[in-house]
């Protein structure tokens, strides 16, 4: 493979799951294709290479239009059907798990088996990109299609934080890691340690990390347990797991641990501070944590 460039190639995806609810039924809003189409408009200002996996021709067409201002090599769209992917082939087994009497009930995490599959596909898509050598940068990252919630008016870039360790995978930490929890504790209380909306690392370490993730998913299914990737990650790095994670996590967090998108903010600030004479004050405190 040719010498890799500095920078990050981002992998994202949209798979049509229909309309679903997040949070407490009857109180929280519904999410559907319209929601993600609205959020993904920010990719028109996102000056990084992006690879999109999707089964929606509408989303593929719109994404191509949104990215038209960038050189063609910076955008790749992979049209792929759900039933061809390992992640979605797990749906029948996950559906049976969620149908168990008394199984923890969190919408959509332990209600909608396809939602769980869509969370697992992040790792599968990244693995495909790495194995097929569809990247030219030293770092790769997953980013949710709905990661950028604000309307962007200026072009921006995400760069790796200056303190990122070569052999770690970077995540945003949402809650304190509690030791000694059992998998059922984590799923039963819908616990989150790492935010799954974005993570990044170097290809070789990502491959090992993803292999461990797959093994953890399959181990949990064998034990009639499942939820989303955020619970799988918590279990994967806990002591009470059958799979020992081989790649350490480097966490970034906001002082209140309330910003689910803080890793992206750190990466954006890393780029912005090179171009702004007076960066936003809030970033200084955040980076000093």
TrEMBL record:
Pfam families (UniProt xref): HtrL_YibB
Domain of life where this protein originates: Eukaryota
Protein name (record): Protein HtrL
Species of provenance: Mizuhopecten yessoensis (Japanese scallop)
The organism's taxonomic lineage, starting at the top: Eukaryota, Metazoa, Spiralia, Lophotrochozoa, Mollusca
